[in-house]
């Protein structure tokens, strides 16, 4: 449908150009005006803009995605849905939404960010209003810390000026140079405007492995006590998690003012995944590839992964991270 409409617009525009040569000056002016209008129409149709056509929150879509695609993360699913829904439906938020996702590799941190983006921006992660930073790629050298701070501030200010509904995702926070992230503290605070720019409708998401040990310990303690994993609540994890992250000298959040000033709205714990969750991930990947779901294959793949602790072997070391690449070996 979209392709057909574009072809039609292009055809009309090209036809308009041909007709210009056959009309008198007055008519030509009118036709050229029509051509210019059509040109703008095509540009606006194809070019992403900061308006409701390209940015519209789909709460139902986010809920369905979290329920059907994110496994073993009942706490994270509940927090993300409520936090994003409440923020996006607030016409006048007092500050940006700031989420900090913590957990081992493969537990779903990047995946959750992707789901949020896909249910806010028409172009999802490909949107020009979604900005993804990886610490080891974008901020590799400690000697350039001053430059990084200046560049990051300018980047955020420029993009929020362009679109107040911008999203910024910072991956590998546990590998970021301590002190760097403090440079964006003013943008996350309770200010109406800074230098004429309002940041209150932006979203900031931090992804980190820091605090994963604390999360894993609590989850394992529940397992050893014979408690149901689904009975773990945010209150069982949040305080220990925030303190662990704040005091981790190797984390980008070390002694950061973002935590000290309570600017992080939610510390979202991602629980380590078990065997059954890995099987579910494998089944989902098969469906995504258009394959017939094969439970025995999914189980075989899951059994070959490494699990910890060594004695109990309860949690998958890499979670669901390697499922996509490893599945080729089993099908």
TrEMBL record:
InterPro entries reported for this sequence: ClpA/B (IPR001270), P-loop_NTPase (IPR027417), TOR1A_C (IPR049337), Torsin (IPR010448), Torsin_1/2 (IPR017378)
Domain spans labelled Torsin-1A C-terminal: 273-330
Main location: endoplasmic reticulum
Transmembrane residue ranges: none
UniProt KW Endoplasmic reticulum keyword: yes
Keywords: ATP-binding, Endoplasmic reticulum, Glycoprotein, Nucleotide-binding, Signal
Binding site for ATP: 103-110
Protein name, as recorded: Torsin
